[in-house]
């Protein structure tokens, strides 16, 4: 890929273009994954500290999803402001979004905990 500002070749993992100091728009873009890989993506995390941090965030997200999920509280917590606003207006995607999110969080938490025991 290339920098959208100056056209210099960039890696996806590069946050700021070294040539023009422009923020790389594609920085956080992840390649399309299978659903199962997306759920268990935390398995690839080898850093235990980062793992613990992720686990805490997932647990807080799950609690927020259970309690204030219809207001998108967990989405705001994750920094997904757009999704959070959408959740407010649709009551958590008519409840379906909240249920799916809860399942995703539970799977993530199980995945992280299971990974720790290995
Ligand atoms: Zn550039």
Show the helix and strand layout:
Elements: H1 35-39, H2 48-68, H3 73-77, H4 81-94, H5 96-117
Description:
This protein is 57% helix and 0% strand. It has helices at residues 35-39, 48-68, 73-77, 81-94, 96-117. The model has no long low-confidence stretch (mean pLDDT 83).
Topology, number of strands = 0
Q: Tell me the major beta sheet.
A: none
Write down the secondary-structure element order: HHHHH
Radius of gyration: 17 Å
What coarse outline follows from CA principal-axis ratios? flat
| Unreliable stretches covering 5 or more consecutive residues | none
Instruction: Tell me the distance between the termini.
Output: 37 Å
Average of the residue pLDDT scores? 83
Structural class based on helices, strands and sheet pairing = mainly alpha
Q: Please report the number of helical segments.
A: 5
* Percentage of β-strand residues: under 5%
Q: Specify the helix fraction band.
A: 55-70%
Total separate domains: 2
What are the bound molecules? zinc ion
Which short descriptors sum up this protein?
single chain; 118 residues; binds zinc ion; flat; mainly alpha
Brief summary of the model shown:
The chain has 118 residues and is mainly α. It has five helices and no strands.
């Amino acid at each position: 890929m290339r920098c959208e500002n100056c056209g210099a070749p960039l890696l996806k993992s590069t946050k700021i273009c070294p040539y023009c100091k422009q923020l790389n728009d594609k920085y956080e873009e992840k390649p399309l994954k299978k659903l199962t890989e997306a759920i268990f993506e935390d398995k690839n995390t080898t850093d235990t500290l980062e793992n613990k941090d992720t686990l805490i965030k997932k647990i807080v997200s799950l609690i927020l999803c259970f309690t204030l999920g219809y207001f998108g509280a967990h989405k705001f917590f994750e920094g997904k402001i757009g999704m959070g606003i959408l959740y407010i207006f649709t009551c958590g995607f008519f409840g379906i979004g909240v249920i799916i999110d809860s399942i995703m969080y539970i799977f993530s938490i199980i995945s992280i905990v299971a990974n720790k025991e290995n």
